[in-house]
Amino acid sequence: MLTTIEGIYEDGQIILKENPTINQRVKVFVMFTDEEVNDKENYATIAKKNIKEKLRGAWKNASLADKEEIKTYFDNIRNEWERDI
Questions:
Q1: Which of 28, 37, 38, 76 has its CA 20 to 30 A from that of 13?
Q2: Which are the contacts of 19, defined by CB distance < 8 A and separation ≥ 6?
Q3: d(C-alpha 16, C-alpha 6), whole Å
Q4: Could you tell me which residues come within 8 angstroms of residue 67 by beta carbon, excluding any fewer than 6 positions away?
Q5: For position 31, what pLDDT does the model report?
Q6: Nearest CA to 17 among 25, 7, 26?
Q7: pLDDT in tens, 13-27
Q8: What's the pTM?
């Protein structure tokens, strides 16, 4: 079975317009066209939505210690991001 999903390639990443409905590990083929894409905002919104859907409930069953470690990790990233250079 072949499934085709449109997307774009930008900055080393492939952003799909929709999530595939495949639930197992499968081989994929990536094809590039010469067509340039001008609707970057639309694809950025789609990418953010896909990430949110994938992460929803990801830490639901994490232990309290794991949750604290994750919080510390993101706090460190935030502090590094906001520090003066």
A1: 76
A2: 50, 53, 54
A3: 6
A4: 59
A5: 92
A6: 7
A7: 888 888 888 889 999
A8: 0.44
| CA-to-CA dists, residue 41 to 8, 15, 36, 51, angstroms | 12, 12, 14, 15
Mention every residue, 6+ apart, whose C-beta is less than 8 A from residue 15. 7, 8, 9, 43, 44, 46, 47, 50
* Residues 24-49: tens digit of each pLDDT: 999 999 999 998 877 666 666 766 77
Q: Whose CA is closest to 4, among 76, 33, 60, 17?
A: 17
Quick: pLDDT tens for 55-73. 777 778 888 898 899 889 9
C-alpha dist (Å) from residue 28 to 31, 40, 46, 69, 77: 10, 24, 21, 35, 33
Amino acid identity at 14 = I
